[in-house]
Amino acid sequence: MFDFRPDPDCPKPEAYRQLCDAADALTSGEPDAVANMANSAALLWDFLPDLNWAGFYRLVDGELVLGPFVGRPACIRIPLGSGVCGVAAAKSETQLVEDVHAFPGHIACDGDTNSELVVPVVREGQVVAVIDLDSPKKARFDHEDRAGIEKLASILSDRI
Ligand code: SME
User: Ligand 1 pocket, 22 CB below 6 A?
Assistant: First the structure.
């Protein structure tokens, strides 16, 4: 049994350290990308409060395709440059969006979402996926979340 328990009272950087350690332990030595994304999505959901969606879109034949996630069913294909995920993948740049309703072209998969953080996963200089976190709270994500998820993306870059 895996028993990675988030400590609800610890500061955010420490929570991300624990989350990244758990993701590293779960994915180390496991070659199956789907299994690694699925377990990572489960950890994100367990460790981070106030989310309504946490998961992956993979870059497949020039478009983003839905990967393992926790949350409500989501749009399956996103063109590069469209929505928050498509912009993150096209620019290979994290998108931290305090209010998704003010983001031009935001794709509303879940009407409850108000803020979003999307971090590209880069392998050998190429975007291979994005990690997408949605929250019903406005401005849920800050620079500490960005740093934590970027660290997770670097751990997963050659495991997904
Ligand atoms: N909101 C995203 C689409 C994916 S869902 O949030 C799961 C976007 O604008 O790219």
Answer: no
Ligand 1: residue whose CA is nearest its atom 3: 107
What is the Rg, in whole angstroms, of the alpha carbon atoms belonging to the chain? 14
Angle at the Cα of 135 from the Cα atoms of 129 and 140, rounded to 5 degrees? 105
Burial label for 150, CB within 10 Å (0-12, 13-18, 19+), is middle
Which residues of the chain, if any, have pLDDT below 50?
A: none
Q: Please state the pTM of the whole predicted model.
A: 0.96
Q: Whose CA is nearest to atom 2 of ligand 1?
A: 107
Q: Look at residues 53, 50, 11, 18 and name the one whose alpha carbon lies nearest to residue 155.
A: 18
Q: What is the pLDDT of residue 1?
A: 65
Amino acid at 146: R
Residue 126 has a CB neighbour count (10 Å cut-off) of 11
Residues linked to residue 134 through DSSP beta bridges, in sequence order? 53, 116
Tokens matching residue 82: 């469209």
